[in-house]
Design a protein that fits this description.
Trna Endonuclease, Chain: A, domain 1; 3-stranded antiparallel β-sheet; about 45% helix; 4-stranded mixed β-sheet
């Protein structure tokens, strides 16, 4: 399902603090059933946050696209279906000992969580929506 954020929505989301962005991310992913990452010719992009190697994730393409500049100008935003994320990515990220930087902004990495923790939160939120 495609959902376009308005300029006002983008501004409002970008003004949220890290905890509020995390809550927003979980709700948006549960509703839209997609997680956005950045990829390049070598695979998905990683950042270092809180001394952890992390994959940054966003709930909307527009938010991910805001990061495509500077060192990441060659990247593209790619959607991952939430079921694929839960079935394959969670265990893969665990195996690679990677954390997740949820909805980072210019001030920092956002909330950094382990893959299992994010998966449990998403599953819980998706069950609440049913």
């Amino acid at each position: 399902m495609d959902y376009q954020l308005s300029a006002d929505e983008l501004k409002r989301i970008n003004q949220l603090d890290a905890e509020q962005r995390y809550s927003y991310f979980v709700q948006a992913v549960a509703d839209l059933e997609q997680i956005w990452i950045l990829t390049d010719e070598e695979g998905f992009v990683l950042v270092t946050a809180e001394e952890e190697r992390c994959i940054p994730v966003w709930p909307h393409e527009e938010l991910a696209q805001e990061w495509i500049e500077g060192d990441w100008a060659h990247c593209i935003a790619q959607a991952i279906d939430v079921d694929t994320w839960l079935d394959k990515w969670t265990s893969g990220l665990n195996g690679d000992e990677l954390a997740i930087a949820v909805l980072p902004d210019t001030d920092g990495p956002g909330v950094v969580v382990l893959p299992d923790e994010l998966a449990e939160t998403l599953i819980s939120e998706m069950q609440d929506d049913d």
